[in-house]
Amino acid sequence: MIGRLMTMTAHAGRGGELAAVLLRVAQGLRGFPGCELYLISRDTADPDTVHVTEVWRDDSSAQAALAAPSPAGGPAPADVLALLSAPPHRTDLTVLGGVGLPADDQP
């Protein structure tokens, strides 16, 4: 399994809008093959900063999600990018286990 931590900073005062769009992205990933976790969180100290915590079965699943068309009515990548004041920061992770994954999915 792989993980990603994405940190995105919205234009001033638009953090709530960014979070709402990313929650719609998450809704579109429900049931997507290989998506184990896609969690949207707002930074308590800076409400214009939103974090996305992702866990994927493998890199090919994550790449497939990026290449898939947006569900009908769902936000496009351009909708997210338009809200950002700077490029997102991505940290790649190797998932070792923990709480929240089904027991049979633990590496």
Describe the structure in your own words:
The protein has 107 residues and is an alpha+beta fold. The chain has one domain (2-97): Alpha-Beta Plaits. It is 26% helix and 28% strand. The protein has three helices and four strands, in the order E-H-E-E-H-H-E. The protein has helices spanning 15-28, 59-67, 77-81, and strands at 2-9, 35-42, 49-56, 89-94. The protein has a four-stranded antiparallel β-sheet with strand order 2-3-1-4, with helices on one face. A hairpin with a 6-residue loop joins strand 2 and strand 3. 18% of the residues are buried.
CATH 2nd-level architecture: 2-Layer Sandwich
The top level CATH class name: Alpha Beta
SSE series: EHEEHHE
What general outline do the C-alpha atoms trace? globular
CATH topology: Alpha-Beta Plaits
Q: Main beta sheet: strand number and arrangement? A: 4 strands, antiparallel
Unreliable parts: none
Instruction: From the alpha carbons, calculate the radius of gyration and give it in angstroms.
Output: 14 Å
The structural class is alpha+beta
The strand count comes to 4
Number of domains: 1
The strands making up the biggest β-sheet line up spatially as 2-3-1-4
Q: What is the rounded distance between the termini?
A: 7 Å
Strand content: 25-35%
Q: Compute the average pLDDT.
A: 91
The number of helical runs is 3
Helix proportion: 25-40%
